[in-house]
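Tutorial sheet, problem 5. The two components below are modelled jointly, 905 residues in total.
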Amino acid sequence: MEEVVGKIWDKWLTSQVTTDHVAAKVHFSELQTQLLIYYRAMGGDGAKSLEIAEKRDLNIRRSTMQKIAGSHKQFYLSWQDERSVRLPPFIALFAEKDLNQSLYFWLTALAAQLDKQSRCGLSYKDMTDWFNDNQQATRHLITQYAGLRRIYSQLAHEVLGLRNLELETLLAKEATKTKATEFFSRDFFSQKDGLTLAEKAIATVIKIPGAMDKYPHSHKDVLPVPLWLYPPLITQGAGADFKPADEKNKTQPKRNAGEVQEIDQRKKAQYVDDNRKTDGLLIFQAEALMTWTEQINLDRCQSDEDDDTDITEIAKDLDIISLSRHRKASAARIRFDLDLPAAAQDDLRLGEGILLPEWDYKQQRLVDDACVLQTMISDEVEPIALSSEYKKLSQDILALFAHLGLTPHRRKAQKSGDEIDLDAWLDDYALPVKDTSKQAFYIDTQRQNRDVNCLILADLSLSTEAYIDDKQRVIDVIRDSLMVFSEALTRLGDEFALYGFSSVRSQHVRYHILKNFDMPHSDHVRGRIARIEPGYYTRMGAAIRQSSQLLAERGGANKILLIITDGKPNDLDKYEGRYGIEDTRQAIVEAKLLGLVPYCVTIDKKGHDYLPYLFGHHGFSIVSNASELPRVLPKIYLHLTAMH
Amino acid sequence: MTEDTNSCYYQVQDNEVEIFNFAKAHNLPVLIKGPTGCGKTRFVEYMAHNLGRELVTVSCHDDLTAADLLGRHLVSSDGTFWQDGPLTRAVRHGGICYLDEIIEARKDTTVVLHSLSDHRRELHLERTGEVIKAHKDFMLVVSYNPGYQNMMKGLKPSTRQRFVAMSFDYPSPENEANILVHEAGIKLELANTLVKLGADIRRLSDIDLKAAVSTRLLIYAAKMMSSGCHAQTACLHCIIEPLTDEPETIKALSKLVNAHF
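Model answer (C-alpha cells):
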C-alpha cells in the first residue's frame, strides 16, 4: 500500500514541477540522420558523429516544490568534444513541435559554427569563455544566415519567456507580490551569489548576442540555456586523451564555482587518475565521502565472478562510475593474452612481422613503424570440396551474372556472328570493286577480357561472433560469402586474393592468408576459408595498408580492394573512436593514390554515420539483411566492375 | 572581368581563355575536365563564338560508335552514298568539334581521334579509304567529368596525352554570384545567398551526396525565383530534388535552405 501511495504521490509531484510539453516532444532519433547531414553542410567536422547527451548536474536555484520532488538538479545539456556532438535525447521545451525541432537544428548549426571556430570548449578556463563563445557563434550565424536569424529570434523570444516564467515561479514562492518584470530591478536573490546579475546577463545576450563580454561571477548556476552549447565533460589528467601511463598527473580537477560538474554521460568514461598506484578504497579524505555518487574508487579487477551481479545493481544506482584506464587496460591484457592461442595451436606465422605506419590525426602526420602486422597461414587444413549447398548458391549467382552484368561486347564487321552488320554490308555494297576476302557482315557478341585484380579483406574480429539470427553468426555469413564469391570470381576469370584480419593492439595485427594471387583456387583454399574463426579487434588501417601494397604490386589496369566488415575500426588501445576512423580514412586515401579502388561492404546498419567519411559516398554498400550477404556480395562486385 | 559578346555570356574564371587561344594558335587539341554544370560547354560555346567558328557538339554515350563520328554509307533511290559524320564534317570544312563527356564513349571509339590529335592532323576514313587533311580552322575539344567515372571507364593514357588539358571547377563565390545575376536577372544580394547555400551543399559532396550542386542548378533556382517562385520552393525543386533521392537528405537540405532564406 505504501508503495502504491508513494508512486501516486511521486507521479503527482513530478507532474507539478515538470515543464515539458509532452505532446510536442521531438526525439533525437527521428532527426539524427538529417541533423548529421545538416551539421556537415554547416561546416562541422566530417569525422564527428552525433550522439545523445545524458543528464548533467546544474546547481540552480530551485523552488521548494522542485526540491521536494527532487527534480531540476540534472538537465540534458548539449555539448561537443573532439569525438562527437551530444544533443538531448528529446526536446519538449516548447508547446509547438516545430519550435522544438527548430531548436535541434539551431543547436546543430551552433555546434558546427563552434567547430569551425575550432572551439569545442576543450580549452575553456572559466564560464566567461563559454559565455563569449556562444555569443560569438550565435552572432555569426544570425548575421550570415537570414533564415537562422528568423528562427533564432523566435527561439530566443520563447526561451526568454520561459525563463521569466520560471523566475516568476521562484519569485512567487520566495518573495511574494513581486512580478517577474520587476525581477531585474530588484535584488531578489542574495547579493552574495551574484545570480541576479548572471541571469540578467544571460537574458541580455540571448536577446542581443555580443552585448556583453563579461560573465558575472556566481556561486550557483544560472538556469540552463537551451540555445547554447555547454563545455565538454572532461576531467583534467584524463579526459578524451589517452595519456601515457608514466605521465604522472596528480592534480584533480579544481572545480570552479558555478562550473558544470564533471560527470560523464555514459556512466562509463569518467576516468580517474590512477597513477598513484594505490589500489585502496579510499584515496580521498573520509569526510568528503558524502554520497554514493561522490567516489567509489574500488578496485574490482580481482573480484570474483559472483560479484558481477552486485556491481550491475550498484551501477544502476550510481550516476557516475569511475573507471581507471590502468585497470581497464590491465584487465584487458590479462584476458586477451590468455586468449591468444598457444604458438603450437595458432596459425603458422610467416616471417617476423611487418612494420607499418599509422596516421595520428592530432599530429596530422603518418607515424612510422607504429604497428606490427603478422602474416599467418593455417598450415594444417583439410582440403574441402565445394559442398552441394554452396554449389547451388554459386550456380544461382552465376546465372545472375549471365543475366545481369556481363553484357558481351559487340564486335562489328566479323566473318561470323549472330547478327547481320548492316553498316558493313552497305560499306561493301558501295565499293566499286569488291574484295571478297574482306567481306565480313556479321556482328559477333563476345565476352570481354576483364583485366581485374581483386583483393578481398575480411574482418575476422570478435564482433563477428554475434548471432544475426537463430542459426547463423556473422562469421558464418562471411565464410559462406567468401566460399561462394571465390567460386564466382574463378568462373569470371578475375584474378583475386582472399585475406582475413584481426588485431590485438598495435603489436599484433593478425593478417591471415586464405588465398594469395598466385595460389590457384583449390580445395585447400576452401579448407582455409572453412576454418576462419572470430577473435580480437579491428585495426583496419594496418590491414588495409598491407593489402594495398600487395594489390599495387599486381599488374593490370583495374585493382579493387574489397573490404568486408561488420563495424567500425577499433582496438584495445588508442585505436578507438576518432583515432581509428582517421587512420582508416588515411589508409583509404593512400590506397586511392596507389590507383586502387577501395570498396567496403558492411552489415553494420549504422554504417551511414561513418562510412561516407571513410570511403566516400560511392565507396560502400550496407547490406541490411546480413544473411543475404553471400548473394548480395557478388552483385555489388559486378556492379562495381560492370563494363559498358 | 566579364566577357559578353552579344548572345553568348561567359564569366571568365581564370586564364582559360588565354590558354585556349594559345592552343588554337598552334592547332593543339584541348581537353577540359570538370564537374557537371560548371560551365565547360558554355566556355566552348563562348570560345567558338569569339573565334567566329562553327561549333559541332557531340554528346558521347556508351553506344556511340566510330561510324557515328566519322560517317556511314546510306542507301538512296540511286544506290548508296557516303554521309559525313559530325567529326568528318568539322575536319573537312573547319570549325570546333566538341566531344562532350568523351569518357562515356567506348575506348575503341576514341582511337579514331589519334591521328587527328597529333602533328598529323588527318582523319582516316577506313570505309572509303579516304585520308582527310584537317582544315586550318579545325579544332578538337573534348571534355569529361572526373567525378563519376566507373572504374572500367576512363581515357586511355595514349588518348589523354594528345591534349592540352585544363581543369574547371565551380566558379569563385563572386563570379558565381555575377553569373546568377546575369543569367537570371536576380538581385546581387539574393545571388550571394544562393551562392552561400551552394557552398554549404558542396561540402557534402562525396560524403552525403553523389555530386555537388552545379552552377547550372543554382541558375535554375535563381530563374524561378526571379519570376516570383518562393525561395524555399525554388530551392527544393531546382537544387535539392535533382541532387538526391534520399528522403532524409532531402529533409536535411530543406532545413539548410530554411537557414539561408
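Marking note: Residues 409-446 of chain A form one domain. Full credit if you identified this.
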